[in-house]
């Protein structure tokens, strides 16, 4: 029953339209090309440095693991940079192009429209990230990382894209102008992720040892800290300075999952006017 | 088909619609006239479930738009005054997307789309990208799109705005065709005078208030108490003008190269007496006729030009 509901919601004309139109523009292959170029340049630059390092004498499993961490960090920042741009215009641009009103008079529900828009933009981002897999495969040449770790990191990326995309789609629904929606989404992302990181560093430096739970909780809202806690299981303990039942990345996923659901529900609510809920006076 | 009762829509302090009451029966072609900002698009947006009213009710096919929006959307084909298209779609794909969005099965869509393209004279453009079409073609395509689910009611907000005369004529012909198909059509348009022969009823709205509603002929009759008489006189035009200005039912007399235009508020009997008097006074009258009021005159006479 649930699968049928999801199938109806996810495989629909709006999603098909989004896929088709997105891949017909020149921007999509260009975005894919530049992304791969950037990440490839960074990976090969890293390898070049390693092979020219006489102390280590080239690549080895330890260096390979460092390269994996480094690439994962770079990929994380590229996702943080690209996802708001891809999602923050999906509704407002339809409004600006004056196609939204027509779409809203069809039989497509607000839920279908919002989820399709979110899935299509995230799918493109997933395509980009998965296209970087051949670069990651270099890591396997030299060992040091298990395939399950790669799968785990990629799942984290997908979650991150959805949570960021939910912000983007909410602001895109609320604000009429795409530019304002994009600025607000980037602003929120920078505030949530940048502020938590900087505040954690600040509290860590002024208040060593005291109130360290605060640092741990602040870092639990930061994607980079969540990523590090996935590589290093001692990281959570170090940041909280005590044994915890949950890792930082688990708290991160829990908190942002709730925020993501709230953002999606609000987007669905605000897409169309509140026709049913409002009690109209019969004058 | 449409029942609107005491419909009010406010934006802050601004009242876009003020206790609007309107009934349109099935099969009627209804012309919605009014100056810019009168509330036509607001009314149509409420009927299309895109806006919620502040107070009052609006029903389409017996369904309250605020309570059963999904049922209402099945019944209506809506064409907004301003609309965009998805540039990277081909004409056929554009219609297919909306057909699928209305839940029409693929095999049915494959049958309906060529028929609709033929109706709007776009069969030869089926594989063209939508952004390569002219404005008139896009308008016709949008009309075809609004018909994809075979709606009972068409809500067309200024369907011919910005079109050149040829495109307007083409649009008018399509609408005539739709009328013969028995569709109920609610249309607001700048070209309403051109559509006079196909509109069954008109409603005149001004400042959010329905000033007048009824059959075109009835409203024209209402206007006949403010008729304009065209009089051509062979000579002594000035003397005739002076004399006419003193007459009881004459409000204003104007002259141009065609003759005199007399704004007359009397009835047929008074009009006959005026003619007799002019003849008796020796004026050489070549022609004496009453100007026919078209919908544009109706509109101008009823609204105050706000």
Question: What does the oligomeric state look like here?
Answer: heterodimer
Order of helices and strands of chain B: EEEHEEHEHHHEHEEEHEHEEHEH
Strand content bin of chain A: under 5%
Secondary-structure element sequence of chain A?
Answer: HHHHHHHHHHHHHH
**Content-based structural category of chain A:** mainly alpha
> Could you tell me the mean pLDDT of chain B?
84
- What is the residue-mean pLDDT of chain A, rounded to a whole number? 84
Overall shape of chain B: it is elongated
User: Major β-sheet of chain A, in short?
Assistant: none
Per DSSP E runs of 2 or more residues, the count of β-strands of chain A stands at 0
Number of helices of chain B: 10
* Radius of gyration based on Cα positions of chain A: 22 Å
CATH superfamily of the largest domain in chain B: P-loop containing nucleotide triphosphate hydrolases
Tell me the CATH topology of the largest domain in chain B.
Answer: Rossmann fold
Distance between the termini of chain A: 43 Å
Uncertain spans of chain B: none
Q: Could you characterize what this model shows?
A:
The complex is a heterodimer of chains A (283) and B (306). Chain A has 283 residues and is mainly α. Chain A has one domain. Chain A is built from 14 helices and no strands. The radius of gyration of chain A is 22 Å and the shape is globular. Chain A starts with a helix and ends in a 12-residue tail after the last helix. The C terminus of chain A is likely disordered. Chain B has 306 residues and is of the alpha/beta class. Chain B folds into 2 domains: 206 residues, P-loop containing nucleotide triphosphate hydrolases (Rossmann fold); 81 residues, 2-Layer Sandwich (Alpha-Beta Plaits), CATH 3.30.70. Chain B is 35% helix and 28% strand. In chain B, a hairpin with a 2-residue loop joins strand 12 and strand 13. In chain B, helix 3 crosses helix 4. The two termini of chain B are 30 Å apart. The model of chain B has no long low-confidence stretch (mean pLDDT 84). At the A-B interface, helix 2 and helix 6 of A face strand 1, strand 4, helix 2 and helix 3 of B. Chain B: InterPro entries: AAA+_ATPase (IPR003593), ABC_transporter-like_ATP-bd (IPR003439), DrrA1/2-like_C (IPR025302), P-loop_NTPase (IPR027417).
């Amino acid at each position: 029953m649930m699968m049928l509901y999801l199938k109806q919601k996810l495989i629909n004309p709006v999603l098909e339209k989004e896929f088709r139109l997105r891949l017909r523009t020149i921007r999509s292959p260009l975005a894919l090309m530049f992304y791969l170029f950037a990440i490839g340049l960074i990976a090969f630059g890293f390898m070049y440095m390693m092979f020219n390092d006489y102390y280590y004498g080239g690549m080895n499993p330890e260096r390979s693991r460092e390269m994996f961490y480094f690439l994962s960090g770079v990929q994380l920042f590229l996702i943080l940079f690209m996802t708001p741009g891809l999602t923050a215009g999906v509704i407002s641009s339809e409004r600006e192009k004056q196609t939204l009103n027509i779409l809203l008079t069809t039989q497509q529900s607000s839920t279908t429209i919002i989820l399709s828009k979110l899935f299509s933009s995230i799918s493109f981002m997933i395509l980009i990230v998965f296209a970087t897999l051949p670069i990651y495969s270099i890591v396997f040449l030299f060992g040091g990382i298990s395939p399950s770790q790669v799968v785990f990191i990629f799942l984290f990326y997908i979650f991150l894209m959805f949570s960021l995309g939910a912000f983007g789609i909410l602001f895109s629904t609320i604000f009429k102008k795409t530019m304002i929606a994009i600025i607000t989404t980037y602003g929120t992302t920078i505030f949530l992720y940048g502020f938590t990181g900087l505040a954690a560093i600040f509290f860590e430096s002024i208040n060593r040892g005291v109130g360290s739970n605060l640092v741990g909780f602040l870092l639990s809202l930061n994607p980079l800290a969540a990523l590090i806690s996935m590589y290093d299981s001692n990281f959570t303990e170090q940041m909280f300075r005590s044994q915890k039942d949950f890792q930082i990345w688990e708290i991160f996923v829990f908190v942002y999952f709730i925020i993501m659901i709230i953002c999606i529900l609000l987007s669905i609510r605000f897409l169309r006017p509140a026709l049913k809920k409002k009690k109209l006076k019969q004058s | 088909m449409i029942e609107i009762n005491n419909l009010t829509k406010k934006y802050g302090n601004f009242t876009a619609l003020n206790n609007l009451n309107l009934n349109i029966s099935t099969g009627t072609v209804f012309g919605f006239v009014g100056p810019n900002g009168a509330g036509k698009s607001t009314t149509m947006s409420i009927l299309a479930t895109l806006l919620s009213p502040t107070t009052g009710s609006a029903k389409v096919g017996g369904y309250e738009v605020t309570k059963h929006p999904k049922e209402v959307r099945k019944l209506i084909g809506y064409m907004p005054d301003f609309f965009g298209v998805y540039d990277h779609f081909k004409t056929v794909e554009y219609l297919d997307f909306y057909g699928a969005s209305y839940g029409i099965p693929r095999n049915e869509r494959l049958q309906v789309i060529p028929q609709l393209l033929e109706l709007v004279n776009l069969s030869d453009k089926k594989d063209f990208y939508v952004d390569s079409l002219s404005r008139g073609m896009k308008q016709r395509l949008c009309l075809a799109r609004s018909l994809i689910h075979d709606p009972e009611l068409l809500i067309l907000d200024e369907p011919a705005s910005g079109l050149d005369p040829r495109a307007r004529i083409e649009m008018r012909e399509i609408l005539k065709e739709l009328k013969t198909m028995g569709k109920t059509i609610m249309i607001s348009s700048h070209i309403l005078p051109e559509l006079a022969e196909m509109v069954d009823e008109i409603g005149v709205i001004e400042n959010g208030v329905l000033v007048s509603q009824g059959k075109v002929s009835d409203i024209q009759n209402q206007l006949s108490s403010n008729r304009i008489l065209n009089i051509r006189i062979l000579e002594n035009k000035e003397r005739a003008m002076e004399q006419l200005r003193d007459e009881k039912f004459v409000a204003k007399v104007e002259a141009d190269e065609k003759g005199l235009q007399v704004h007359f508020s009397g009835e047929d009997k008074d009009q006959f007496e005026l003619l007799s008097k002019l003849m008796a006074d020796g004026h050489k009258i070549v022609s004496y006729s009453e100007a026919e009021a078209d919908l544009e005159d109706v509109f101008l006479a009823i609204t105050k030009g706000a």
